[in-house]
Specification:
The protein has 10 helices and 15 strands. By secondary structure, the chain is α/β, with parallel strands linked by helices. The protein has 2 domains: 70 residues, no CATH class; 302 residues, P-loop containing nucleotide triphosphate hydrolases (Rossmann fold), CATH 3.40.50. The strands form 4 sheets. Strands 8-9-10-7-11-12-14 form a 7-stranded mixed beta sheet, sandwiched between helices. Strand 5 and strand 6 form a beta hairpin. Helix 2 crosses helix 3, helix 4 packs across helix 7 and helix 7 packs parallel to helix 9. The longest helix has 17 residues. The chain starts with 7 loop residues before the first strand and ends with a strand.
Length: 384
């Protein structure tokens, strides 16, 4: 049966889709792909059709291939059968660590003891997650930055809420848009810009990721070997800059993508994520050892989103940014987004060595922004 939403969004063209907006295909052999039409009973019961072709090897079996009838992009059939549709997009400048962060988020969410079970919907999502996880968690290699001009395809995940003992458990469809592949400082009118603009437009929450190592004040304090191993290759030859220039470029990009006027706040929820906290550990003007941000995240242990902890982290990072002279950055973010929360994460837990090799992966607070999203969607409880 169709989920309670009874519609979803195409993650590619962003049109709202119901069962009648989809095309269904049976593929019993590589050269024998044929369309299967919905019957009246399929429409009535809101279900996938079965192949009725008399001599097809899949006669009587449910179709496996589904496409959007508007853009013809292939979709996982499971997208249609969830109680709620979630989506978020990681955006930021080149080298901020978007792909590394998403890799650790997916891995940690899948392997946690939280009563939310994460399952990939399609083979491409499975293969992407496994490839990145093996590179980071097993081979201990830093992920190579996404090639400019090549945007990763959305990942499709199912979240099952295992906290209930009822026969029918709530399920949620989660689309993850990776904005890697384009530097948001250099926006043009290329096909990649159009694609990432659609990703941003389709996201219910934006993860706006900033690398603190771009700041000259930080670069002057971080040991040279940590700076060399942690900063992205494409940033090594760039002059130090401030975060407000990054924020202005990103805000303009998002408003252009969403066709929002300059004076209008962006109503998408914005999680501003300061990455690579591990590189700041030994800096003089970093975070105090006993600060909240340096403590273990409490959300998983307490089976909910601890709002007081998150607000304290938000305050600590804002205070740190003000001490770095980045109050204009905070003003830019607050003036342009309706709902903002600031987070700090370390995807790896420790900086890479001089050869870009990783120690044991111990992510720090990477799930905090996702817990915030799930709490605001009513999927997990908010606790104080």
């Amino acid at each position: 049966m169709f989920g309670t939403r009874r519609e979803t969004n195409c993650p590619y063209c962003l049109r709202k889709l119901t069962l009648g907006d989809l095309k269904f295909f049976c593929v019993d052999e590589e050269d024998n792909r044929h369309e299967v039409r919905l019957s009246l009973m399929d429409k009535f019961f809101k279900r996938l059709p079965v192949c009725q072709r008399r001599f097809c090897n899949n006669h009587g079996l449910t179709v496996r291939e589904v496409t959007c009838k508007y853009c013809n992009e292939k979709l996982p059939a499971q997208m249609l059968f969830h109680d709620k549709y979630l989506s978020f997009c990681a955006v930021g400048v080149a080298g901020a660590g978007k792909s590394s962060y998403l890799t650790t988020v997916i891995h940690e969410l899948r392997c946690s003891d939280f009563p939310l079970v994460l399952q990939a919907m399609d083979t491409e999502t499975t293969e992407t997650a496994l490839l990145n996880e093996k590179s980071v968690y097993e081979a201990r290699n830093c992920l190579v930055g996404t090639t400019s001009g090549v945007a990763p395809r959305p990942q499709f995940w199912t979240i099952l809420d295992n906290s209930t003992e009822s026969k029918k458990i709530p399920t949620y469809s989660m689309t993850v848009y990776d904005g890697a592949g384009e530097d948001c400082e250099k926006i043009g009118y290329t096909p990649i810009d159009a694609k990432i603009s659609r990703y941003i437009s389709g996201a219910g929450m934006l993860l706006i990721m900033f690398d603190p190592l771009i700041l000259s004040s930080v670069q002057n304090e971080v040991p040279p070997e940590i700076l060399y191993s942690s900063i992205a290759h494409e940033r090594k030859e760039s002059a130090p800059t401030n975060m407000v220039s990054m924020a202005n470029a990103l805000v303009n990009y998002i408003k252009q993508s969403l066709n929002i006027s300059p004076g209008q706040r962006i109503d998408a929820r914005a999680a501003v994520v300061l990455t690579k906290l591990d590189a700041l550990r030994d800096t003089v003007n970093g975070f105090a050892p006993d600060s909240t941000i340096n403590r273990e995240s409490p959300h998983l242990k307490r089976k909910g989103f601890i709002d007081a902890d998150s607000k304290m982290v938000d305050l600590e990072i804002r205070d740190w940014l003000i001490r770095q002279g980045e109050i204009a950055f905070l003003n830019t973010i607050d003036a342009n987004f309706q709902t903002v929360r600031v987070f700090g994460v370390s995807s790896f837990g420790n900086p890479p060595d001089k050869n870009k090799r990783l120690a044991r992966i111990r992510p720090h607070r990477v799930l905090d922004p996702i817990m915030w999203m799930l709490a605001n969607e009513g999927i997990i409880p908010i606790k104080n």
